[in-house]
Amino acid sequence: QVQLQESGPGLVKPSQTLSLTCAVSGGSISSGTYSWTWSRQPPGKRLEWIGYMYCSGSTYYNPSLESRTSISLDTSTNLFSLKLTSVTAADTAVYYCARGGCDYPQKWGQGTLVTVSS
Amino acid sequence: ETTLTQSPAFMSATPGDKVNISCKASQHIDHDISWYQQRPGEGAILIIQEATTLVPGTPPRFSGSGYGTDFTLTITNIESEDAAYYFCLQHDNFPYTFGQGTKLEIK
Fold it and tell me: Quick check: helix, strand or coil at residue B81?
């Protein structure tokens, strides 16, 4: 059964780049039959979809974050990654990775809290 | 962007109860909605896809209904293990969007 685990720095300074990875176990990320999604939930707010890599390898991002976001897969390490540049306090959130069928997530990681503060 | 209005934000139930969680979309989204369950300390899992289809492995006491703009997740004969956070996701148009979530407490 596939398991996903997010990891990365819990604290990032304003204006820096937030980098997170999602370790996938119990399945290969190179199969080409899954989508790989990043979402986040700021404290006290609803979940926000950041973007995903579709089955074909194309990426789709939330327009509100697109200029600062990059999602990629590393098949050699079975990791998929999120980079968010020029962060501010508004980017403080629990970040989640998820694997799904081509259209929507099916299994999520537990999430990792990232705080943006100097 | 499609806004999903999910209610209630919190509910408390007794084992054996039936509960309904609503998700209303700001525009027509066909049947392009999914429901997720997140137990404390665990990652969320998909329990209902395409508004009404039970995901294999989901207990049959869970069901989904609705089409277009109004959707409902129903849990009948609630059990203690159903205590969790439930949320909906629309995947009809980009950006995908979520409901506010519902925390279900079992007394």
Answer: helix
Condensed to tens digits (0 to 9), the pLDDT of residues B49-87 reads 999 999 999 999 999 999 999 999 999 999 999 999 999
Q: Tokens for B91, please give them.
A: 């995947």
- Classified as helix, coil or strand, B50 is coil
pLDDT in tens, B36-59: 999 999 999 999 999 999 999 999
Coil vs helix vs strand at B9: coil
Nearest-Cα residue of chain A relative to residue B47: A106
Q: Is A25 on the interface with B (CB under 8 A)?
A: no
How far is A105 from B82, CA to CA, in rounded Å?
A: 20
Residues 28-47 of A with CB under 8 A from B: 39, 46-47
Which value, to the nearest 10 degrees, does the dihedral of the CA atoms of residues B91, A40, A88, B93 take?
A: 0
- Residues with Cβ within 8 Å of B20's Cβ and at least 6 positions away in sequence, in order, are B72, B73, B74
Could you report the per-residue pLDDT of B14-34, keeping only the tens digit for each? 999 999 999 999 999 999 999
Three-state SS at B13: strand
Q: Hey, are the CB atoms on B95 and A63 less than 8 Å from each other?
A: yes
Question: β-strand B19-25 against B4-7: which pairing, if any?
Answer: antiparallel
| Nearest residue of A to residue B40, measured between CA atoms | A110
What is the amino acid identity at position B54? L
